[in-house]
TrEMBL record:
One of its GO terms (biological process) is DNA transposition. The chain crosses the membrane at residues 53-72. It comes from Methylocystis echinoides. PANTHER family: PHP DOMAIN PROTEIN (PTHR30007), TRANSPOSASE (PTHR30007:SF0). It comes from the Bacteria. Residues 9-64 form the Transposase IS4-like domain. This is Transposase IS4-like domain-containing protein. The keyword Oxidoreductase does not apply. The lineage of its organism: Bacteria, Pseudomonadati, Pseudomonadota, Alphaproteobacteria, Hyphomicrobiales.
Amino acid sequence: MDKANYLDFVLEIIRRRDNQKGFEVLPRRWVAERAFCRMIRWRRLVRDYKRRMDLSTALIYVAMGSLLIVVMRTHDFLNRL
């Protein structure tokens, strides 16, 4: 959290209302869930072996970097530069 404060991130926790009945779409929740679902495709990230934290961190960076490249390629982002 200290690093998030340093980088001026705003953290918003969205909770279900107590009087709510049934299903209601929560705003922007799908963004985080989509990122986690895409990372699950990387077999090594499914299990946390906790042998070397630096290796786990590096694999997360590689997975997210490759996902960013795929998103940029599919949205034709590179041709706009």
